[in-house]
Write a structure and sequence with these properties.
The chain has 321 residues and is of the alpha+beta class. The protein contains ten helices and twelve strands. Ligand MTE binds next to loops.
Amino acid sequence: MSQIKISKGWEISGNLATPESVYMRRREFLKGTALTTLATSALLMGCTSKLPDPDAETPLSEIEKKLYPANRNEQFQLDRPLTSERIAAGYNNFYEFTEVKEDVRVHAQALPTRPWTVEVAGLVRKPKVFDIDDLLKTMPIEERLYRLRCVEAWAMAVPWTGFPLKSLLDAVEPISKATHVRMTTFYMPFTAQGQLAFWQPWPYTEGLTLAEAMNELTFMAVGIYGHPLPKQHGAPIRLVVPWKYGFKSIKSVVKIELIDSRPPTFWNTLQGLEYQFTANVDPKVPHPRWSQAKEKMIGTEEIRPTLPYNGYGEYVAQLYT
Ligand code: MTE
């Protein structure tokens, strides 16, 4: 593991993660940082004590009782043991809440996840705002075991419950001009204090080509480990694209737009050289600050060779020839 140099968090704070043009507006930056720090500390002090216990059992709704556990799609097999649920639920990236992975599970409890709608709009014949519970009733829900590979060189293997994004896109009928899909996370800066960082391009957005979005691997997860998604994993609905680095798998999605060009995205806007739009897992292309040749399984600490396309080449390699 010695050749994989992983810094704490995701090294997004300070000048490394701030585009130079923004960083150079130093006075404004420092003033903003001070204000944001004050606001964040005040809000955190006031809010964390009132947050629900992340370990408390959330009762299932009537719809959820019928859904879980969902039938597993045996087409998707793993080459390694599943990550333990406790480990996966305690080591998260969700910068809206905090940069400290181990604390996300506590702070994310502030997110209200009902009512929740997902607007699907743009270059489609039938734009629609879907209520999350209607999606649970109408989409083909199943369980899939997928590997998850973070750009930071750690990995997990988890059972997601959800449905193919294609099923949702087919329902709104994209028109032929549509070439890309842009997804957006909620914007609630007083609930998710990370969003108070005005120099970052909140809300979090991500994007795919339409061909990637329609690929059979591309999954909208509503659950994990046989129950609804805990908030730290991106409740109530998040994207999962297992052949790409984890930052592409945007959490807590509120909007999906069909568009005709490559959209700007959160990480690519902040640091385009480090976080590319395509971001396919590739052991041969190092991150500018560390190698991607190997990965560490969270929980067991096992070091494994990174697989091209995270082992999903048979499904997606043809998209890039
Ligand atoms: N989505 C949003 N909205 N905000 C985030 O900070 N982090 C990404 C991704 N989706 C992130 C996000 C990163 S870097 C990773 S590795 C995965 O979520 C982690 O998902 P997990 O915490 O469920 O394992």
